[in-house]
Structures are given as structure tokens and as C-alpha cells.
UniProtKB/TrEMBL annotation, chain A:
One of its GO terms (molecular function) is lyase activity. InterPro entries: CcmF_C, Cyt_c_assembly, Cyt_c_biogenesis, Cyt_c_biogenesis_CcmF. Keywords: Cell inner membrane, Cell membrane, Cytochrome c-type biogenesis, Lyase, Membrane, Transmembrane, Transmembrane helix. Residues 89-295 form the Cytochrome c assembly protein domain. This is Heme lyase CcmF/NrfE family subunit. Belongs to the CcmF/CycK/Ccl1/NrfE/CcsA family. The chain crosses the membrane at residues 6-30, 42-62, 96-113, 122-143, 177-197, 209-229, 249-266, 273-293, 313-331, 352-373, 393-412, 424-442, 448-468, 477-497, 608-629. It comes from the Bacteria. Required for the biogenesis of c-type cytochromes. Possible subunit of a heme lyase. Residues 315-627 form the Cytochrome c-type biogenesis protein CcmF C-terminal domain. It is a multi-pass membrane protein.
TrEMBL record, chain B:
Heme binds at residues 123, 127. This is Cytochrome c-type biogenesis protein CcmE. It comes from the Bacteria. HAMAP family: CcmE. Pfam families: CcmE. Belongs to the CcmE/CycJ family. The gene is ccmE. It is found in: Cell membrane; Membrane. Keywords: Cell membrane, Cytochrome c-type biogenesis, Heme, Iron, Membrane, Metal-binding, Signal-anchor, Transmembrane, Transmembrane helix.
Length: 645, 144
């Protein structure tokens, strides 16, 4: 019953989206304000129906209803409850349902909350959003119904891939999806503004929170995904330049550029057409990301759901939306008035440079990700890996980081080189000091890690500069947000450079009782014991580690886990976090002579990579809070003036 | 600067950025495009020593041997046309088996062997790089 109710709600939600699109077009075309005004409630009802449908899917997963095909294929009754719930979106159909559900909720939120946008633009925005949603509804209902029944129902399900049975990964896809969907909202805003020719600061201020929110979720999603790969795959790496990773990085790069250009539009009324263009590009990137991950077209260590029909369906949607938006952009961009001008050396100029560098990185990643597909179409089989991306994107990223220090220290509209130089003395001094220290103590760590450490210290110090000489309590929240996000970027960069420069690796075949050294640590292997979990059994290595010969000992327990459904082995690394890094241990196979393979890494400051990511997201959140609060304040003052004025 | 000029400048800058990205990518591609090699590709490329790459193929049956230090594995990767001897120091992934697919990352050593520092971790048992599937297919048909 629940499955049928879910399917019914899905059809009704699709009908609402159709209605929403029709009413928005009639309202705008025929200038029927009475029709246009009804778009808001329709969007709210559609959002609620989408939510109901999704909750029905979660319910059938929680009840392990094996008569639903999707549950039988992706779940198992012996699975912990968390993973039964996460199983609802840990597959193709469920994640697509999650997509339209979040899109619907976002539409409802715009309809309920958005007050700053001109009414006609809002109606156009909701119409554009309904058009996006319709494509995905069609995709779900016609090509991948999540509620399809299976008869006869199997006694039990296939189970979820054990690698995905991890709290980090259970929440990783929804986080990324929130980001993708946030960008689709920004896209709808851009289309709406193009339709009503209403590109200006008010529009930018309305769009900015959505871009910010999307960007926060993308940042969190990428950070969590990277940490998951790091501790779950057991190879000690945190970024692979895998197409699936690039699929989330590309929208992030575009969203970062958009976030900065929308600020120029909101505060200085500049970069109008460019901002609209970026909104279109950012959403295109999230569509391309969905396409890459869902179509199975690419070689990937974690490409899943290999299905050409679905790939072509998403490709068709991609062509339709991007092509349509580009066409609209081309037709309307002439009518978008040029914004205010500015000098080359100004905050605007720095933000333009930031945008250009981000665009270059985006271009490089896009080419590196798509080139193999194009080459394959031409009959050449090749794949592109980390050396390409590091070589092409690394130096540009470092240049971007330098702009990041200077940008916030430059005044809006115009500035002078000598006064900027005086403001940059301290960060440049810090970077030079680091350079000196590295030359003395750490030669030969490689060019990129070396440059990374130097730039990271300079950026870290420089990112705090906007706070110098300010009353910290009266500093606006969004300034804090910017400072913390920029600091986060420096922290992350420091972690990456430190990990590639200073990691120590020890690999041994050890007998119980044997002690091995790794960096400053001594690790004693005391033996192997069995362990048991809710749906797995394991061999567990017992290690006792200590820093130096007389440090406080602490236990480490790397495991080899065996899952019965589906039958799989996974390696669970043991990770001990210290203030200055992480000790990472993996248990390997047993040799014929009774030894066990042990791989131990000491990774100085590796944690900063993800701490930096969290700081970036925190900065975004503070900024968002600051903006929303400020907007509310303005509104309150206006309401007061209206009452008494 | 007049608004119109500024706009033109920005458009030109944006074009320059996109072209720059393309050129940068192309120059890096020239060195690194072929990142994935089968044993036959490697032979065709004249065993480029010292270049970082991935070697893909099947683990030849009966070729896996562990060295005396307990952590170095020696095996042969084959695409049924040619073979490459691989040395890997580290913990092999759970799915590493004789007769099944493997992707080794590393470089060709001066003696012509392949020194791997990573054996690719795979997400699940269904994973097989399409390039490899294609290659195996091609060589098998040729033999028949």
C-alpha cells in the first residue's frame, strides 16, 4: 500500500509541476495577475507531495518490504536501521527521487519566503523550476520507477554494498544533491530574470542565499566524500581525480565563481551578464555531474548504475536545459544593461581575476574529464590521471590562492598599487619566513608541496587581515564568514601540501610481538583476534602505538571485515588522530610463515585538509546567516516605516 | 573606462581564460594523455621509463609470488598478447586474484619491469575498466 501511495504522490507532484509551469506561462504571457498569483500555492503543494512520495520510499525501506523491486535489489532485512534508511537513496531510482523531492521543497521555500524579488520575476523563476522538475519527473515515472513491485517477492534482498555501509557515505549523496539542487534554483533565478529582463542588484541579492546554500552543501559533500575515500578505501589518499570526484568538483568551482560574481552584482551592480552566464554554467556542471555518475559512460573506480538508456535520457535533458538556457541567454543578453564600471585595480577587478582563474581550473578539469569520452568516440582508448590534473590545475590553483589574499584588502571601485603593497607586507613576510624555514629544514619535498606550504602560510596570515584594526564585535557576520572561509582554504592547502611533503610510510610483514617504527611512533603488533558486528565478522589486528619509546601507549585495531550479503571483504583502517597529524594502520594478508602484512602511515597535519573544508563551509554558513539576518532587519525597518511613516 | 569598453574588455578576458584553459590542458595532455596502458600499449610505446602511468590487464595464472620480505608481491600482467612483470610493495586489495583484472599504478623501471606503488582499490566486484574490457575482447577475437 505504502508503495502505491508513494507512486500516486509522485504522479500528483508531477501534475503539480506541469500546472505550475502552465500557470506561470499564462500569467506572464497573457499578463493575468490572477493566474500568476496562484503559482505560489501550487509550488507549495507540489513540494509537499514530493516529500510525501520520498517519505513513502523511506518507509518501504525501513519495513524491508521485499515486494518492492528497489528494496529487494538494494536492501537486506539484517542491515542496521541507519543503512536501511540510507539505502532509500543509495541507488539510482531513490537518489533521483531525492533530487526531485529537494527541488520541490526548494520551490516551496521560494514560494513561501521570497519577498525581495519582483513578482513577475518570481513567477518566471518558479515556472523555470517547474520545467526543470518536469524533466526529472518524466525520467522517474517513465524510465526508473522507484516503487515498481516484484512478483513473487524474494525472501530477502541483495543487500547494500558494504563499502557504502558507512555513516559518512549514508549522508554524503544527500549533501551533494542539496548542493546540485541549490544550483538548479540559482539557474531558475537566472532564467526568470532573463525572461523578465530584470537583472540587477535586487535579483542578485535574492539569488545569493541560494548560491551560498548550494555552495555550503557542495563544500561539505566534497569534504565528506574525500574523508570517506581516505579512511574507507584504506589506501591513505584523499583525492583521486576520479571522474566521479570531478563531477562534484566542477559544480563547486562554478559555484565558487558565481558566489563571488553575484556579490559584485549585489553590492556594485557590475558583472551582470557574466553572473547570469555563470548561473547557467554552474547548473550545467551539476547536470553533467549527474550524467557522468549516472550513465556509467566513464571509467571510474566508483562509477555505478551502468545503464545506457538512462545515460541518453539524462543527456537529452542536459541538452534541452542547457541548450534552452544558452539560447535564451543569447537572445536576451543584449537587453541586459551594462552595470557600473570600475578600475582594473579594485575589489571588482580582483573578483574578476578570481572568476577567470576559477574558470581556467574548471576548463582544465572539464577537458580532463570529458576528453577520454570524446577520444573514445573517435576510436581511441585512453584515460587521464592525476599527473595531468596536478600539472595543469595545480599552478593555477596556487595563483588563485594568491588573489585570495589580495582581493579582500583591495577597496571597491579603485585602489592604488602602493597602498595595496603596504597592506600585503605582513602576509608576504610570513610566506618568505616559511620559504626560509623550508629551505633550511625541508629541501627536496617537491615543487608543488613546497610552493603549497609557502602560499598556505601567506594566505592564512593574509586572510585574517580584513579583521585587523576592526572592532571584532561590530564586524558584520558576513565579513567573518569571508575571513573564515578564506582561512579554511589556506588550512586545507597546508594540509594537502604537508601530507604530500612529509608523509612517512612503513610496510612490514610482522610477527606478533614485533615492534615497528613509523615516523615518530613505535607500533607493537600484539596479535590477531576475531571481531563481530551487526552484519559482518572480522579479523582484527591488535596494535599498541606510542610516540617515542616512552610515550603514552594507545591501542589501534585495523580490521579485515567479511560481509555475507553480498559476500565481500573490506579493509577497515585504524586511524589515531593527534594534534599534529594522523597515524593510519592497515592490516593485510597473512603470509605462509605466520607473519601479517602491516602498512602504517604517519601523516603530519593531514587532518587540516578536512578541517579546512569544514571551515570553508562554516564561513559560508556565517555569511548566509549574516545576509539573511541583515535582510530581515531591513525588512523590519521598512515595515516600521510603512506603519508610522 | 566607458561601460561599453569595460564590457568588451571583460568579454575578451573571459575568452582569454577559456583559451588559456584549453592551451594549458592541451600542453599537459601532450605529456600525460596516455595514462592507461595495456601490456601491448606499453610495448608499442617503447616502455617509457620513469613516466607515471596505470598498467591494466589480467593477473596471469600461476604468476603471483610473494618475496621473502613478506610485503613485496611479484606478478605478471597480461593482455593475452604481451606480458609485463610487475613488482609491488604493499598490501594487495581484497579483489586481487590470479586470472582477474588488475590496474597497477607506477612506472617502468630501467630493467623493463613495472614497479607499482598502488594497486587500484575497487568499489565493488562489478568494476572493470571499460578500456580493459575492450582490449581483452579485441585480443581474444584476434587470436580466434
Amino acid at each position: 500500500m505504502i508503495a502505491e501511495a508513494g507512486l500516486a504522490a509522485l504522479w500528483l507532484a508531477a501534475a503539480m509541476a506541469l500546472l505550475q509551469l502552465a500557470m506561470a506561462s499564462i500569467g506572464l504571457r497573457a499578463r493575468r495577475a490572477d493566474v500568476a498569483v496562484a503559482v505560489r500555492p501550487v509550488a507549495v503543494v507540489g513540494g509537499v507531495l514530493g516529500l510525501v512520495s520520498f517519505l513513502c520510499l523511506v518507509a518501504v525501506f525501513m519495513r524491508s518490504d521485499m515486494s518492492v523491486l528497489l528494496v529487494a535489489e538494494n536492501s537486506h532485512s539484517a542491515k542496521p536501521m541507519l543503512y536501511k534508511i540510507a539505502g532509500a537513496w543509495g541507488n539510482h531510482e531513490g537518489s533521483m527521487l531525492l533530487w526531485v523531492m529537494v527541488l520541490g521543497i526548494a520551490g516551496a521555500a521560494i514560494a513561501l519566503l521570497e519577498k525581495r524579488l519582483e513578482e513577475r520575476t518570481l513567477v518566471a523563476t518558479l515556472g523555470a523550476q517547474a520545467a526543470i522538475a518536469l524533466g526529472f519527473f518524466a525520467f522517474l515515472l517513465l524510465a526508473s520507477n522507484p516503487f515498481a513491485r516484484v512478483d513473487p517477492a524474494p525472501a530477502d534482498g541483495n543487500g547494500l554494498n558494504p563499502l557504502l555501509q558507512d555513516p559518512g557515505l549514508a549522508f554524503h549523496p544527500p549533501t551533494l544533491y542539496l548542493g546540485y539542487v541549490g544550483l538548479s534554483v540559482a539557474f531558475s533565478f537566472a532564467v526568470g530574470a532573463l525572461v523578465t529582463r530584470d537583472v540587477g542588484p535586487a535579483f542578485a541579492r535574492a539569488m545569493r542565499p541560494w548560491v551560498l546554500a548550494a555552495w555550503i552543501f557542495l563544500t561539505l559533500g566534497i569534504t565528506a566524500g574525500s574523508y570517506w575515500a581516505y579512511y574507507e578505501l584504506g589506501w591513505g589518499g584523499w583525492w583521486f581525480w576520479d571522474p566521479v570526484e570531478n563531477a562534484s568538483l566542477m559544480p563547486w568551482l562554478a559555484a565558487t565563481a558565481l558566489l563571488h560574481s553575484v556579490t559584485v552584482l549585489a553590492t556594485r551592480d557590475g558583472l551582470r551578464a557574466w553572473t547570469i552566464m555563470l548561473a547557467v554554467v554552474a547548473f550545467s556542471m551539476s547536470m553533467i555531474g549527474t550524467f557522468l555518475v549516472r550513465s556509467g559512460i566513464l571509467t571510474s573506480v566508483h562509477a555505478f548504475a551502468v545503464d545506457p538508456t538512462r545515460g541518453s535520457f539524462i543527456l537529452a535533458l542536459l541538452a534541452l536545459y542547457i541548450g534552452g538556457a544558452m539560447l535564451l541567454f543569447a537572445l536576451r543578453v543584449g537587453t541586459v544593461k551594462a552595470g557600473t564600471t570600475f578600475e582594473l585595480l579594485s575589489r571588482e577587478g580582483a573578483l574578476v581575476l578570481n572568476n577567470l582563474l576559477l574558470t581556467v581550473i574548471l576548463g582544465v578539469v572539464l577537458i580532463g574529464t570529458l576528453y577520454p569520452i570524446v577520444a573514445q568516440a573517435g576510436g581511441v582508448q585512453l584515460s587521464i590521471g592525476p599527473p595531468f590534473f596536478n600539472k595543469a590545475a595545480g599552478p593555477v590553483a596556487l595563483a588563485l590562492m594568491m588573489v585570495l589574499v589580495a582581493g579582500p584588502l583591495i577597496r571597491w571601485r579603485r585602489d592604488a598599487w602602493d597602498s595595496l603593497a603596504s597592506r600585503l607586507i605582513v602576509p608576504i613576510g610570513a610566506a618568505m619566513l616559511t620559504l626560509g624555514l623550508l629551505v633550511v629544514f625541508a629541501r627536496g619535498i617537491g615543487v608543488l608541496p613546497f610552493a603549497g606550504l609557502v602560499v598556505a602560510v601567506g594566505v592564512g596570515v593574509g586572510s585574517l587581515a580584513p579583521l585587523w584594526g576592526r572592532n571584532l564585535r561590530r564586524t558584520p557576520l558576513f565579513t567573518w564568514g569571508m575571513v573564515i572561509a578564506h582561512l579554511g582554504a589556506a588550512v586545507s592547502l597546508f594540509g594537502m601540501a604537508s601530507d604530500s611533503a612529509f608523509t612517512k610510510e612503513t610496510l612490514v610483514a610482522a610477527r606478533p610481538g614485533q615492534t615497528v617504527r613509523s615516523g615518530p611512533f613505535e607500533v607493537t603488533f600484539t596479535g590477531i583476534s576475531p571481531a563481530i558486528g551487526p552484519n559482518w565478522s572480522a579479523l582484527e589486528g591488535r596494535l599498541v602505538a606510542r610516540r617515542g619509546a616512552d610515550g603514552t601507549p594507545f591501542p589501534m585495531r585495523p580490521q579485515q571485515r567479511f560481509f555475507a550479503n553480498p559476500p565481500t571483504t573490506t579493509n577497515e583502517a585504524a586511524i589515531a588522530t593527534r594534534i599534529d597529524g594522523q597515524l593510519y594502520a592497515v592490516l593485510g594478508a597473512q603470509g605462509q610463515d605466520g607473519t601479517w602484512q602491516l602498512r602504517i602511515w604517519w601523516k603530519p597535519f593531514v587532518t587540516l585538509i578536512w578541517l579546512g573544508g569544514a571551515l570553508i563551509a562554516l564561513g559560508g554558513a556565517l555569511s548566509l546567516l549574516g545576509r539573511v539576518w541583515r535582510a530581515g532587519q531591513v525588512e523590519r525597518v521598512r515595515a516600521k516605516e510603512a506603519r508610522y511613516g | 573606462m566607458k561601460a561599453k569598453h569595460q564590457r568588451l574588455t571583460l568579454v575578451l578576458l573571459a575568452l582569454a581564460a577559456v583559451v588559456g584553459a584549453g592551451l594549458l590542458a592541451l600542453s599537459a595532455l601532450k605529456d600525460q594523455a596516455a595514462f592507461f596502458y595495456s601490456p601491448s600499449d606499453l610495448a608499442a610505446a617503447g616502455n617509457p621509463v620513469g613516466q607515471r602511468m596505470r598498467l591494466g590487464g589480467m593477473v596471469a595464472v600461476g604468476s603471483v609470488a610473494k618475496l621473502a620480505d613478506g610485503v613485496t608481491t611479484r606478478f605478471v600482467v597480461t593482455d593475452n598478447a604481451r606480458t609485463v612483470a610487475v613488482v609491488y610493495k604493499g598490501i594487495v586489495p581484497d579483489l586481487f586474484r590470479e586470472g582477474s583484472g588488475v590496474v597497477a599504478e607506477g612506472q617502468v623501471a630501467a630493467n623493463g619491469g613495472f614497479v607499482a606503488d598502488t594497486i587500484l582499490a575497487k568499489h565493488d566486484e562489478r568494476y572493470m575498466p571499460p578500456q580493459m574490457a575492450g582490449k581483452m575482447h579485441k585480443t581474444e577475437t584476434l587470436e580466434k
